[in-house]
Amino acid sequence: MFSFGKFKSVDFYRKIPRDLTEASLSGAGLSIVAALSMMLLFGMELSDYLAVSTSTSVVIDSSNDGEFLRIDLNISFPALSCEFASVDVNDVLGTSRLNITKTIRKFSIDHNFRPMGMEFHPGPLPIVNKHGDDYYGEHDEDSVSVKADNFDGYSHQFPILVVNFYAPWCYWSNRLKPSWEKTAKIMKERYDPEMDGRILLAKVDCTVEVELCKRNHIQGYPSIRIFRKGSDVRDEHGHHEHESYYGDRDTDSLVKAMEALVAPLPLESRGLALDNKSANATDNAKRPAPLTGGCRIEGFVHVKKVPGNLVISARSGVHSFDPSQMNMSHVISHLSFGKQVSLKLFDEAKRLIPYLGGSIERLNGRRYITQHGNENVTIEHYLQIVKTEVMSGRSGRKHKLIEEYEYTAHSSLGHSMQIPVAKFHLELSPMQVLITENSKSFSHFITNVCAIIGGVFTVSIPPEFVLLFSAVTVVQAFTLCYILDNSGEKLQN
User: Fold this and answer.
1) Predicted confidence (pLDDT) at residue 246 exceeds the cutoff of 70
2) Which residues contact 301 (CB under 8 A, 6 or more apart)?
3) Which pLDDT belongs to residue 280?
4) Does residue 404 have a pLDDT over 90?
5) Where are the beta strands (DSSP E) in 273-418?
6) Is 170 one of the catalytic residues?
7) Where is the Thioredoxin domain (predicted)?
8) Do 143 and 164 meet the contact criterion of CB atoms below 8 Å apart?
9) Less crowded by CB within 10 Å, the N or C end of the chain?
10) Catalytic residue chosen out of the listed positions 82, 170, 213, 295
11) Radius of gyration over alpha carbons of the chain, in Å?
12) Which of the four pLDDT bands, split at 50, 70 and 90, describes residue 235?
């Protein structure tokens, strides 16, 4: 027969003798220390619970963001004219796109990277079908040879001054020479410089007049410039407004273009020719000349996700370039890959993942400037690009928090016998870095908090309570064993 006396033996909360409940100074101090310890350990556990822990893994790139990668760029070239600046892309699959203009904008800058005017709009380049007359015999020198000391005098004397900036070694300059001299002879006969004086055709040898050609931002040969009287006023930065001719270069086409320039001017006109614009088909062969010798290129391009190159260089199908005079120094203001991340989301990602984002814009702000006299230098950048995704595991389910492309960059400068370029070698990794944000369970947090409070309280109780609780615990253990033994015997019977 089970008695209630045996039932009382399992009581965990036994009455404490009254003399053990009296307060003491040592007990109060120990209680304060215990409370502070509990609060400190609770704060540390709470901070650990709220902190974001991550795990990193490398997996095969199986993302579904398409086969093309977007490249955003903003690069300044203080010595590359917007007139010939070209952005090209190519890859190992044979894809090649030259002179991308649809998503690229160009702005003229000076050698100190200061913007000079509005966006440079070159317009569609006419296709030059005739590069000169098929004449290889001797011809008269009817165009005026202009030098640095008399160039300003001619430009202020004649309402229209058309100058052929050439180089004797240039193939295209030599193709143009016969038709240019023949055109100069025809225009001299029709508009005598002494009697009429409305137009003059001249030429400048850029291998001799180097500074004069640099002053007029000549980088490709031949360059035909049209100077109108009144438009050659230079400001403090040294730029002046004039036009470039890009039409056919045979005698008939040149004569037609020159006639169109003279037609709006009255006879014996020595006034300004700045506002006299002809409105005929030959205007399609002219466009504004660059204000300065530098260019800032900004925009974006799409490339396939395979190894390839992004190349920025001087390009023209009807001009020659002197590699020794080309300077591809540049400053990278911005270069990034993939979709643009909003600032709010990017800041949130950096707050959650402090190790993310260190290599997104590795080249931003870098300067690659060659010294004067080392113009024919190709600057190459070798970029290894890897995709990084951050997955959030909080709130019980995983979702993509952010994705981006990080890269490493190694740059080199080397002399080139060809036309120097700025080249970005792109090497995309087939792997991707997966960063998973791991959260701790609330039940684990509550368990740890209970363990902290109970453990500190147990460790900090006075010695007499330790003896009492130890004795009680021993009694309870023996009582529990006795009950279990008796229960076992009854079950066996």
Assistant:
1) yes
2) 70, 71, 73, 87, 89, 100, 103, 104, 310
3) 46
4) no
5) 286-288, 294-304, 308-314, 330-337, 366-368, 377-392, 399-415
6) yes
7) 114-263
8) yes
9) N
10) 170
11) 41
12) very low
